[in-house]
Structures are given as structure tokens and as C-alpha cells.
Amino acid sequence: MTAIKRIAAAAAVGAVFTGTALAVAPTASATSYNGCEYPRVCFYQTQPDWTIGMPDAAYQDVTSYYQNLSSRAYGADWVYNSRNDDRAKLRFTNGGQTYYKCIPPNGTIQFSSASTVTGIRIDTAAAC
């Protein structure tokens, strides 16, 4: 299937589902979801990127520290963790304060416009 057909198909599917239905991830599998290939944590800058399943950046390395995000991931609105057994910890700012949020395996999070995602750490532990 060509890229244009895939994008069109993803947009059509995305138009059918709205609101919180998009935030529900499928059961664990070693495939992909919403354009995010296993075993990555994908960043979507905008709602339209999320809706059509076009991640702007992805990370997959397990680290013992927070990695600063690239310009393509920094400040993303949506983040999806396609990993089956690993949690993703995100560092973000809101109102000048730094906070941390954990995404479980196959989990999704949406950030408000007041928050700016700045870092990621992927751990081998599954529970948040």
C-alpha cells in the first residue's frame, strides 16, 4: 500500500473514532499501533498527527537517565508507548515547575498546551 493510501486509510479510521476512544490502546502485541512501530515510544506534536497515526519522533533505548528530547519530540501533545514490558517515564514542565509522568506498556498520554514534554527515560519495569 502506498504511503498516500495508508495516510488516507488512517485518516478515515481516525474520523470514525473521536474523544477518549483514541486514547485506548489495543492489547499487547509485537506490532504497531497508530503508526508507532514496536518497540518504540512515539511522540506526536499535534492532534492531527495523532489522528492520522504519523509520529514525529520515536525513542527505543532503555536508559538509566532522562534523555533530552529532539526538536521533533519536544513539546509533543500525544505520546504512545508501544513496548509490551517496559514503562516510559516522561519529564515535562508546567507553569515553570518540572514534573514526571509514567506511561505503562501500550499506554497513551495526552498533554495540555500548558505542559511541555522535555525528556524520556525507558525502564525495563512494566509497572508505573
Protein model, in words:
There is one protein chain. The longest helix has 14 residues, at 3-16. The chain is of the alpha+beta class and 128 residues long. The chain is 16% helix and 34% strand. It contains two helices and ten strands, in the order H-E-E-E-H-E-E-E-E-E-E-E. The chain has a four-stranded antiparallel beta sheet with strand order 4-3-6-9. The protein has a four-stranded antiparallel beta sheet with strand order 5-10-7-8, with no helix packed on it. It is globular, with a radius of gyration of 14 Å. Strand 1 (32-33) and strand 2 form a beta hairpin. Mean pLDDT is 84; it is low at 1-24.
Could you provide a short overview of the structure?
The protein has 128 residues and is of the alpha+beta class. Helices cover 16% and strands 34% of the residues.
What attributes does this structure have?
128 residues, alpha+beta, 4-stranded antiparallel sheet, 2 helices, disordered N terminus
Q: Which shape, going by the Cα principal axes?
A: globular
As a percent range, the share of helical residues equals 10-25%
- Please work out how many helical segments DSSP would assign: 2
- The pLDDT mean sits at 84
Main sheet specs: 4 strands, antiparallel
Radius of gyration: 14 Å
What order do the strands of the largest sheet run in, or round the barrel if closed? 4-3-6-9
Number of strands: 10
Tell me the strand percentage band.
25-35%
**What's the helix-strand series?**
HEEEHEEEEEEE
Structural class: alpha+beta
Q: What is the subunit arrangement here?
A: single chain
- N-C termini distance: 37 Å
Which spans have pLDDT < 50 for at least 5 consecutive residues?
Answer: 1-24
